[in-house]
Amino acid sequence: MSSSTSTMPEARPEADRRRWFALAIVMTAAFMDLVDVTIVNIAIPSIERESGATFSQIQWITAGYALAFAAGLITGGRLGDIHGRKRLFLIGITGFTVASALCGFAVNPEMLVASRILQGGMAALMVPQVLSIVHATFPAHERGKVFGLFGMVVGLGAVSGPLLGALLTEWNIFGLEWRPIFLINLPVGIAGIILGRKFITESKAPRALKLDLVGVLLVTLGMLMLVYPLTRGRELDWPVWGFVMMGGSVVVFGALVAYERWKTAKDGSPLVELSLFKVKSFAAGIAVQTVFGVVMGVFFLVWTMYMQVGLGWSELRAGLTGVPFSIAVSVAAGLSVQKLVPRFGRKVLQAGALTMAAGLLIYIWEAGRYGADIAPWQMALPLAVMGLGMGLIVAPLTDAVLSEVPREHAGSASGLINTVQQMGTALGLGLVSVVFFGVIDERVAPSRIPGEFTDGFQNALWWVTGVLGVIFLLMFALPAKPKQHVEGGDEEVPAGELPGGELPQKEPVLTP
Fold first, then answer.
1. HSE toward the beta carbon, residue 205, CA cutoff 13 A
2. Distance CA 415, CA 88 (A)
3. Cα distance between residue 299 and residue 288, in whole Å
4. Tell me, what's the pLDDT at 507?
């Protein structure tokens, strides 16, 4: 290596350019995962028709991904801390791309289910690195802008999946039916692999860590015991063993906490960094993130069932109806972090919860007022109001959760954020059986189906409104104002040290 003093000034502009290229790459990967979670639902009728899949297999095409994803997130985050976030991101996106190809070329339902499980496992390696790379690459004064962009991506991904799935399925490209919903990941994934190798800067925990295999086993077992019964409960008519498993998951998580405390005292390399929960902003944000996942789990599934089954709309009509929601989320997410939160603090997030609740109340009224004759343009107002509320929450919430987390634990924290959101979403999906399917009678005459589904939709939305009230109250535990930074916008840190205890590199790590 040449003298670092002579190269540093010239390397900084390149480093600056590279981190924004890196941001675009990891955001694209995050978008790809968000879309993949929702894109399958809209194509389920086509998959069932073309592949001859049974109802149980159809269930596993969606549940298999969710189970593998949720069970592996914390482990994926910690592996990034230990072996390098860039390395794990590239492994994850490569595996995700290969699994997408296997899904697209599946010769039978069994192969499709197995490929979806593999895809979820690879996403669990890729997704935690996204927030970790952002957290380790960008100084504190830039993270607000970055998380604003992340919120926009979340909003677009939430609704773009159904719309993209509808278009790809209806176009029936080359007679491939539903397969392009998976094959579209191939060019995106390949580009992410090539560009990621060149532009993403490697980062890892500054102190050598070891993988906590017992912790991996306990967290995976606990997640499976919680999520599996919730996912399969309705199909199996809520068997007693499912409730026993969910109760047992609490015992497993308790054992995990006890073991992680012992592991921390022994060698300082736990899977779950329990000290993170001593950071008030992290603990409060995790609670809000979990309950917010419940809202998303209930609303999006019920909304899709209401439009496609209850009202009998086509995939494309249902997908296009969500466009106002997506636009509103993207606009509000950008404004909230850059303009509103620095001035009003957590009041912005609380306003978001109340705004979402207002949109739901408008939707409840419209569903009852117009019944089966409701049109997509009439849904635009409540969806836009809900989207504005969600945009005010998603981006600032991520920033609030991670704002005071030391960089060496960014991977673990990121994995926990994604995990609790998945847990909340799984709980929400389980509650759909109570708040939606528990109200409607699916055996009524076809002429009465719209009315039944409208009643179920309204009932579910009342529940979601109540949950948003709980979220509003939980948000009082978040910091009242965003953390103030010293001159230059970064945290005040000891001389010669970076935030989180990392020592500065003599030369920037920009290896392709």
1. 25
2. 13
3. 17
4. 30
Six-digit token string for 153: 């991506």
> Residue 90: its pLDDT value, please?
95
What pLDDT sits at residue 309? 79
Element (H or E) spanning 65, and its range?
helix 55-83
Angle at CA 386, nearest 5°, toward 433 and 422?
Answer: 45
B/e letters for 252-279, b = 16+ CB within 10 Å, e = fewer, are bbeebeebbeebbeeeebbbbbeebeeb
Helix axes 410-435 and 55-83, enclosed angle (nearest 10): 160
Mean pLDDT by 10 residues, the chain (512 residues): 38 61 86 79 76 73 79 83 90 96 92 93 89 79 73 67 79 83 91 90 76 86 82 78 93 94 85 82 86 86 83 83 85 81 88 96 95 93 94 81 72 75 75 78 75 91 94 86 48 35 32 28
Q: Which residues contact 270 (CB under 8 A, 6 or more apart)?
A: 212, 215, 260, 261, 263, 264
Question: How many C-beta neighbours within 10 Å does residue 240 have?
Answer: 7
C-alpha–C-alpha distance, residues 459 and 441, integer Å: 14
Residue of 119, 108, 138 whose CA lies nearest to 189: 119
| H-only helix segments in 444-492 | 449-474
d(CA 81, CA 268): 13
Q: Which of 220, 188, 228, 204 is nearest to 75 (CA)?
A: 220
What single-letter amino acid sits at 489?
A: G
Alpha helices (runs of H) in 105-212, residue ranges in sequence order = 109-137, 140-171, 180-183, 185-199
